[in-house]
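Quick start: read one record
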Amino acid sequence: MGEFITNVKSFYSAIEACGKEQRHIAAEVMESFSAFIEETLLTFHIKVGASDTTNMQDLLFQDLLDLVRHIKPEMNERVKSYLKRIQETKEDRLYRLRRRISMLRPNSKVTKEQVLGWKMKEQEMKDLVDFLSITASLIQGISLCNPKESFFKNLLEKAIRHRETFGYQSGVLEVEEINKRHLGKMIIQHVGHEGVEDKPVLRRLLQACIDFLQTETGNVWKNASITIYDDEDKMYKIASGTKKHQFICQMKNGEPFIKDRKGSSEKTRIQSTPRSTTDITDDTSRERGDGQNCTIA
């Protein structure tokens, strides 16, 4: 417990020592760590065809190391080792860490006293201590950096560009193209890992959307939107481009049901075969005819 208290205090002291621009940089570095954890979590949900996710992980991994070399070069090997440990960490631990990190952003209203009052199991506390120790040291380095230096700004912009391939705008997930990777991230964002989540219906709806992607051809998913209503009538939305092709996904007679929103009389019902999200297959296998786990009625 003493180590936890020390690291929480060091983390908040480091943030308080930053000016406005430096605090912004600290927030962006923490967002990159959070994005790296999300990409790692996504590999639990996409078994085959995770090459795009693996590539994104590699980009974020390199972005973080590039920033560390500029902010505090003596920490390079320490951060590299930490990122590798993240990749080897079990899914449930990563979900808990990601949830805690989301409340620790530099502009967050969560106070030091509130963090010190968090109730956690020993392993969860240890994982958070590791993160706080790393980020507090980096933020101390950021407080000494010149935020206007062009090389540093370019590094930061590159990291933001890679990270923002997935970002929320006004409650809507805006993406270049709706695909299984982005829908998999919605499972991570809103549902949690299999076996402990409290939104099993939303998981089924999102899985049905993943299965539904293969039913539309051409560039439909580059200019489309899917609005999802769960069993509590809460809305979740993902959109791309002009949103020309609009779909609604909800439950009907106990099964996920997807229809065209623009008044088409034809309705499409997706009957998903029960399965783990780690069985999501890649586009290549679908072209061979494998991995089609739903029927269109």
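The two ends are 57 Å apart (CA to CA).
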